[in-house]
Amino acid sequence: MKCEASVGLCVVVLNCLVSVLGLQQSGRSQPVYLNHFAVHVPSGDADADEIAARHGFVNIGQIGSLKGFYLLEHSRVRKRSVSHSDEHHRKLSAESKVVWFQQQHEKKRHKRDFSDPNFPSFGDFQSLFQSHGNLQGLTGQHHNRYRGIGPLNIFPDPLFKEQWYLNGGAKDGYDMNISPAWQKGYTGKGVVVSILDDGIQTNHPDLAQNYDSEASTDINDNDSDPMPRDNGSLSLSL
Predict the structure, then answer these.
(1) Partners of 103 in the beta sheet?
(2) What's residue 121's pLDDT?
(3) Where is the Peptidase S8 pro-domain domain (predicted)?
(4) I want to staple 37 with a disulfide (CB 3.0 to 4.6 A). Which of 48, 72, 121, 166 is the partner?
C-alpha cells in the first residue's frame, strides 16, 4: 500500500510539474479566470437576483449603463484560475432566461505607443539646418519666435516657468509649445476635457471651480464620485 501511495503521489507531482512547465513554455498565454460572471438577463433585476441566488452567486448589479447585463460573483469559485468553472458554466447554460454569459478573465493593459524610427527627431532637423550656411539662422529664428516667449508675460505665476512640458523646457523641443496659442487668445474656455485616470481629488483648489460632477463617473464603483479611496485601492474614473 505504501508503494502504491508513493507511486500515486509521484504521478500527481509529475502532473503538476508538467502543467507548470506547459504554462512557462506557452508564455502564460492561457487566460486567468476570475470568480466573476457577466450575464445577460433581459427580463430584468428580479430574474437576475433569482438566478444568482439559485446557484450561489451574489448579484453585484448592473454592468455600467448596459441594461439587462449583470455581474455575478461566486465565493466558492477560485478568484484566479487557469481553467474556467465547468460546473457554473453548465448551470448558467441551463437557465432559459440567461441569453448570454461569460466568466471574466484577467486582461492586462499595455501602453499603446507609436514612434516612427524613420522620422527624424527635432535635433536631427536642427543639425540639418545648421549644416547649411543659408539656413543656419533658421533654427534660431524658430526658437526665438516660438519658444522665446517669456511665461511671466502671460501668467503672473512664479511656478509657471517650472512647467517645462508646456513651453521650452523639454529635450529636443518635445514640449507642447502652448504659449503661442495662448498669446493668440485661445484659452480653452467652453471646452470640456474628459480624463481617464485612477481617480482625481475633486475638491483640490486647482480643480474645484471647473469640476463637472454630472460629467464624471467611477467605473469600478458604478457611481459619480471619482475621488480616490483611502484604503489603498484605485478607482477607474472618467
Answers:
(1) 37
(2) 59
(3) 36-112
(4) 72
pTM: 0.49
Could you read off the pLDDT of 104-146 as tens digits, one per residue? Answer: 999 887 777 666 666 655 555 556 555 555 544 444 454 444 4
| Cell 500527481 -> residue | 12
How many domains does one find in the chain? 3
With contact defined as beta carbons under 8 Å apart, do 57 and 72 qualify?
yes
User: For residue 129, what are the domain limits?
Assistant: 122-183
198 φ, ψ (degrees, to nearest 5):
-85, 15
What is the torsional sign of CA 186, 189, 191, 197? Answer: positive
- How long a stretch of residues is the chain? 238
- Quick one: three-class SS letters along 20-54? HHHHHHCCCCCCCEEEEEEEECCCCHHHHHHHHHH
Q: Rounding to the nearest 10 degrees, give the CA dihedral for residues 8, 10, 14, 20.
A: 100
Q: What are phi and psi of 224, to 5 degrees?
A: -100, 10
Rounded to whole angstroms, the Cα distance separating 140 from 160 reads: 24
Residue 170 domain flag = yes
Amino acid 237: pLDDT:
54
Task: For the chain, list residues with pLDDT below 70.
Answer: 1-28, 113-155, 167-173, 230-238
Strands of 100-105's sheet, edge to edge?
57-62, 69-74, 33-40, 100-105
Q: Quick one: residue 228, left, alpha or beta (phi over 0 = left, psi -120 to 50 = alpha)?
A: beta
Asked whether residue 218 is domain-assigned, the answer is yes
Question: Residue 153: its pLDDT value, please?
Answer: 56
